[in-house]
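Can't paste images in this forum, so I'm doing it all in text. The chain is below; anyone willing to post the predicted structure tokens underneath?
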Amino acid sequence: MPFYRMGDLPQGSSKVGPAVSHATAGELMKVGWVIYPQGDGPPPHFHPNEEQYILMLEGKMNMICGEEIREIGPGDLVHIPRNTRHGIHITEGPAKFFAVKSPAGDGTLDQDYNKASDADEVTQRLKD
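Text version of the structure:
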């Protein structure tokens, strides 16, 4: 079926933090929305096999993508190429964002998660 209501998407929890995600997959991509509480966020990581877009819906967060750090808020769209280190720290939450990833894989949003080797250092930078 090509029509979905956000609240009807299957709910799952993240294996890398307290986020709640709702996702579904098509043939070549997966989509979903993610909610993180204030003060949290996944450790910096990369996806060797997935390209990603996120669209902020609510809240604010500090985000690193590659070497660039920015404050992201409602209406901001971010492209994350494959193998690009990225991470977030929620500064005003809860934070909600819509995510699109390709390829679809098994349909879960954190399937291709690989923690960055400098995750602890980068997490501290995002909190400062």
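Residues 14 and 20 are 6 Å apart (CA to CA). DSSP finds one helix and nine strands in the chain.
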